[in-house]
C-alpha cells in the first residue's frame, strides 16, 4: 500500500497544454485595459517589464498578477475579467488538450487508492470550462481555484484545503506537482512529502531548481512511480 494519500496537480502546463493561450490571454487583457504604468520613482515595478513579470509569476492567482501590475483594484479586476474571457474563448475553440499521459497518471493514482486534486490559478468558471471541454468531470476527486481556498499560489491554501476536504490525515502523505516555481513554493509551504517540478510548461529546469523541490520530472506521467 502506498505511503501517499493524495496528489495535488496543477492544470495548465502540468496536466493541460494550451499552446500559449495563457500568454495570449494576458496580451488581450493588457490590450483591453491599457498598459500598466509604473510609478516613476519605482525602478523595479513589475510594469517596467510586464510580460517578463507575467512569465515569472505563471501559476500565481491571476487577480494577484494583475494587482501587482496595475496597483489599482478596479483595473486589476477589469484585466482579470478580460483575461478569463480570452482564455475561455481558447478553451471553447478547442485550444487545449491533455498533457500526454496526464489522465492516465491520475487514473493510476486513484486506482492505487490515492486521492487526486487538480489546482489552478484560474477562476472557478475557467477551471470548470477546461474540465468540461476535456471530459474530465469524473477524472479527479476534487478541483480547486484560489477563491475556494483563500489565497492562490505561491501560498499553500489550495493544497491544505484539499487535505481538509478529502480527509487526508497527514500533509506529509501528499505529493504536489506543477510546472512553475509558484507550484513548488506552494507545495513546500504546505509541508508536502513530494514537491515535483515538471518540464512541460511555463518554467524550465533552472527556474524550477531554484525553488524548493524534491524532484524534477520530465512530465506528470512520471509521478505515479514515485507515489505508488
Domain unit count: 2
CATH superfamily of the largest domain: HAD superfamily/HAD-like
Shape assignment: globular
Radius of gyration: 17 Å
- Record the strand order, biggest sheet: 5-4-1-6-7-8
Number of strands: 8
Judging by the overall fold, what is the CATH architecture of the largest domain?
3-Layer(aba) Sandwich
The residue-averaged pLDDT reads: 91
How far apart the termini lie comes to 8 Å
Query: What about the largest sheet?
Result: 6 strands, parallel
Low-pLDDT segments, ≥5 res: none
Using the coordinates above, name the CATH class of the largest domain.
Alpha Beta
Continuous helix count = 11
Name the structural class.
Answer: alpha/beta
In helices, the fraction of residues equals 40-55%
The SSE order reads: EEHHHHEHEHEHHEHEHEH
CATH topology of the largest domain: Rossmann fold
Strand content: 5-15%
Structure description:
- This protein is of the alpha/beta class and 228 residues long.
- It folds into two domains: 6-17 and 97-227, Rossmann fold, CATH 3.40.50.1000; 21-92, no CATH class.
- It contains eleven helices and eight strands.
- The strands form two sheets. It has a six-stranded parallel β-sheet with strand order 5-4-1-6-7-8. Strands 2-3 form a two-stranded antiparallel sheet.
- Strand 6 (174-178), helix 9 (181-190) and strand 7 form a beta-alpha-beta unit.
- Helix 1 (21-33) crosses helix 4 (73-92), helix 3 (62-70) crosses helix 4 and helix 4 packs parallel to helix 6 (124-134).
- The relative contact order is 0.19.
- The mean pLDDT is 91.
